[in-house]
Amino acid sequence: GRTKNAFNDAVLNDGRLRFSKQNVVYKSSKTGKVDNIPAAELSVATWRRVCLGHGIKLATSSGHVYKYDGFRDTDYERISEFFKANYKVELTEKDMCVKGWNWGTAKFSGPLLSFDVNDSSVFEIPLASVSQCATGKNEVTLEFHQNDDSEVSLMEVRFYVPPGPADEGADPVEAFAQNVRSKADVIQATGDAVCVFKELQCLTPRGRYDILIYPAFLHLHGKTFDYKIPYTTVLRLFLLPSKDQRQMFFVISLDPPIKQGQTRYHFLILHFSKEEELKLTLNMSEEEVEKRYEGKLSKNMSGSLYEMVSRVMKALVNRKITVPGNFQGNTPGAQCITCSYKAQSGLLYPLERGFIYVHKPPVHLRFEEISSVNFARGTTTTRSFDFEVETKQGNQFTFSSIEREEYGKLFDFVNAKKLHIKNRGFKEAKNNEYSDSDDDQHDAYLERMKLPQLLGYDSNASESDSGSGGDGSGDEGKKKPAKKAKVVKEKRERKPRKGKKQKDTNAPKRPMSSYMLWLNSSRERIKSENPGISITEISKKAGEMWKQIGKEDKEEWDGKAEEAKKTYEKAMKEYRESGGGSSTPAKKESKKEDKKRKSGGGEKEKEQGGNDSFKSREFISSEESSSDGERKKAKKAKKAKGTPQSRDKVLHCHHGNNRMD
């Protein structure tokens, strides 16, 4: 036979089951544990079909329940006859419910919680396996002890308890929880708390909690969740000053962690201001305090709030508090480094025996589990670097966006702790690289941006040189094409800008999607159900709710979106027919400007007759006008100004530079 005494047994324990006239004896092959059930105490015997054959459930008059399976179908008759003849108990057959329904009745019978559908059991929970029982609005959550021998363990079950009739005074949720707690292995508060700290700010889990200090466990009481933390699960205590020296972090490392749904909190982080003061009186006599805590605590204490909490925790947990060592950062007085981990900004504390990162998510790395560290150049900017830590298990932690001024001190600290540095020997090179990175670093992007302008200027200059043949005509030819290219370039850049700025504000607004229509109608309801929720959390919550909406409801909103789309198309059609949204005048004006520019350029070429040395008065320098040949050309330019065609030509050439004289 095989036993199934533990709720979280992933593998059934093999053993031998013996029925005798005096008792029922089972011995486990794995542990050697023996179950001895006297025949006189047997009260109920049930035969039922289980996943691996058939099984027997035995209940005693003292309230104990035993389950054994591994039987064959043919064993029923022999066992039933033996029970009738020797135990005076009838072996009844009972079928399990396999409909898959999740709505039924919870029945408490001794140490068992049975969930039944139509008087057929779906599953049973031994209440002795329950470690925590938490209540919420119409909900009870049961948490179970973890079975270290199994690879997979059931850790949590939630029951929805509907509200009872209005005339009943008792709360059905509390009644359900009380039945569980009466038989469960749940930490119960025996006696009064040693002391209570009201409304402490907690970073993980987030919120404000009242902390009740009991002799054997710590009780966190919040508005939504309660946590009971035995002192045996506390591994380490940390007291860490923030970078501004005005706040303190008190960190409690836990194993196993506390749980909230699927989230596991391995660290409890309390946040204090140094200015907060507290007068604390323990709920014990002075003699009892002296006897139990041996001078570590006194009945009446006063001081900073963080000092009171850390002092009480140190005495009750009986563990030392770890504080930062001799490390000093670049900021005067700071014993930590500002950095980012997984896109969240936080503080990295180099300790005497490890690193701890606060706060989201908290990370504690001991030197003995670190295989190597690496200093890497920042991926986004040259003003920062990354600090990579690789553990012996192969996990890598990257702390990024560390200011380059922190590099030298962090390198010296790691080197002094004799940690293996992958890029050792590059410290001076990195420091030199950081020092001149802003001055001498080659900017490839800037060079690419400059290159087209340089190439365009040189190519125009070479063409003008080949076409000119007089004194000084080469210099004039270089400058003139460059100006023309500049004017054309500026005009081309302005066109898309004007197009972007022009928005038709009178046009009908585009219709919203079905999701946006639903969100607008549900936003206030989400806010009322989740007071204090932020804008980003509203969007996240709405997305989750939208996924859970049924097909029929979505079709309703899709229909509304389709109606809005048809209304928009109809309004847009009427708007266009009435002349709205037309861009014809702007297009005609731009075409006229292009035509005028082209015709002006053609007349200019005809009038010059191949003479590339023509320049207006503004472009003739003092050096050029010193020669006789240039004076003659300047006179020709003045004469050319007298004709309407040449005047238009000069205005057109210098319109881009606002030279209108």
Brief write-up:
This protein is α+β, with helices and mostly antiparallel strands and 661 residues long.
> What's the oligomerization state?
single chain
Distance between the termini: 111 Å
Strand residues, percent: 25-35%
**What helical percentage do the residues reach?**
25-40%
Mean pLDDT: 76
Query: What structural class should be given to the helix and strand makeup?
Result: alpha+beta
Helix tally? 14
Query: What gross morphology would you assign?
Result: extended
Low-confidence stretches: 1-11, 428-441, 454-491, 584-589, 602-626, 643-661
Strand order of the largest sheet: 4-3-2-1-7-6-5-8
Radius of gyration: 42 Å
Structure description:
Helix 9 (514-529) packs across helix 11 (551-577). It contains 14 helices and 31 strands. The chain is extended. The strands form seven sheets. It has an eight-stranded mixed beta sheet. With 661 residues, the chain is an alpha+beta fold. It holds the Pfam family Rttp106-like_middle. Residues 600-620 have a biased composition (Basic and acidic residues).
Keywords:
extended; 31 strands; 661 residues; single chain; 8-stranded mixed sheet
Reconstruct the topology from this structure.
Blueprint: E1 2-3, E2 13-19, E3 23-28, E4 34-38, E5 42-50, E6 53-60, E7 65-71, H1 75-87, E8 91-93, E9 105-109, E10 112-117, E11 120-126, E12 130-136, E13 139-144, E14 156-160, H2 172-183, E15 195-204, E16 207-213, E17 217-221, E18 226-230, E19 234-241, E20 247-260, E21 263-273, E22 277-281, H3 286-293, E23 300-304, H4 305-317, E24 321-322, E25 337-341, E26 344-350, E27 354-358, E28 363-366, E29 370-377, E30 384-391, E31 396-403, H5 407-416, H6 427-435, H7 444-467, H8 473-501, H9 514-529, H10 535-548, H11 551-577, H12 584-608, H13 628-642, H14 644-654
Parallel strand pairs: 5-8, 19-24
Antiparallel strand pairs: 1-2, 1-7, 2-3, 3-4, 5-6, 6-7, 9-10, 10-11, 12-13, 13-14, 15-16, 15-21, 16-17, 17-18, 19-20, 20-21, 22-23, 25-26, 26-27, 27-28, 29-30, 30-31
